[in-house]
């Protein structure tokens, strides 16, 4: 199995380095990832600046490339320029923090997986929730190969968003197939002044406690389960589409 591995935390992040070693047990891994953190970059791509590509070693037998762009840039340039063979799977992660509910719309991690699906490749985003102290990658590392081998048997072009509790493997209760929940924030832009006397704004905020359905990814993580949510990039609202077709709008 040929696996393209990327992330949005940067090529030197703990999560991607650990995952590269784990995935090398089940296939040939090539890492193409941003040269620095690109969290919350969404599905942005670089159009008005050159992309720099630097070859680097990840672990023994694992090729790596640092890209001066976004996670979506990394997948695009890997599939369209760097790799000589189409991978069987695109994997994004392990992300430092969860990608749950509506936050997937901002996530560089999930967007990288979506870019793989746009190229008709099975794609997986893996994230670890925040722990009480530091993030614990053990459970995510332990279950990653098994989850990926199962998902790799499914049809091409699918996207799976996986969130894992920040726990040791023995403390994780199992897996649940979920839907996206709802995440909302009390956002605040804090106004500050730089040393030159010019104003700038820094986004801060707190997560609002919302009761989510038992079938949501957010509830699964709260209950110490691995959440697996199938996604697609077709944003068409088909219910409204049929309503509009039947309304006979005329201008």
TrEMBL record:
It is found in: Cytoplasm. One of its GO terms (molecular function) is metal ion binding. It comes from Anaeromonas frigoriresistens. The keyword Methyltransferase does not apply. Its cofactor is Mg(2+); a divalent metal cation. The keyword Chloroplast does not apply. Nucleotidase that shows phosphatase activity on nucleoside 5'-monophosphates. Keywords: Cytoplasm, Hydrolase, Metal-binding, Nucleotide-binding. This is 5'-nucleotidase SurE. InterPro entries: SurE, SurE-like_Pase/nucleotidase, SurE-like_sf. A divalent metal cation binds at residues 8-9, 39, 95. One of its GO terms (cellular component) is cytoplasm. Binds 1 divalent metal cation per subunit.
């Amino acid at each position: 199995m040929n696996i393209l591995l990327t992330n949005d935390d940067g090529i030197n992040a703990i999560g991607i380095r650990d995952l590269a070693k784990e995935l090398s047990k089940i296939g040939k891994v090539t890492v193409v990832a941003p040269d620095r953190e690109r969290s919350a970059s969404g599905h942005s791509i670089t159009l008005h600046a050159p992309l720099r590509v630097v070859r680097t070693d990840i672990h023994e037998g694992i090729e790596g490339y640092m890209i001066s762009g976004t996670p979506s840039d990394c997948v695009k340039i890997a599939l369209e320029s760097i790799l000589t063979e189409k991978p069987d799977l695109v994997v994004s992660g392990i992300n430092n923090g969860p990608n749950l509910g509506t936050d997937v719309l901002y996530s560089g991690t999930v967007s990288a997986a979506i870019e793989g699906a746009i190229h008709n490749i099975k794609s997986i985003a893996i994230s670890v929730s925040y722990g009480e102290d530091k993030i614990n990658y053990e459970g995510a590392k332990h279950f990653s190969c098994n989850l990926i081998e199962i998902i790799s048997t499914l049809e091409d072009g699918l996207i799976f968003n996986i969130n894992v509790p920040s726990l040791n493997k023995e403390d994780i209760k199992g897996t649940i197939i979920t839907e996206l929940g709802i995440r909302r924030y009390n956002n605040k832009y804090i106004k500050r002044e730089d040393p030159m006397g010019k104003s700038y704004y820094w986004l801060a905020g707190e997560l609002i406690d919302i009761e989510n359905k038992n079938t949501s990814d957010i509830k699964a993580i709260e209950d110490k389960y691995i959440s697996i949510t199938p996604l697609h990039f077709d944003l068409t609202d088909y219910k409204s589409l049929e309503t509009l077709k039947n309304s006979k709008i005329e201008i």
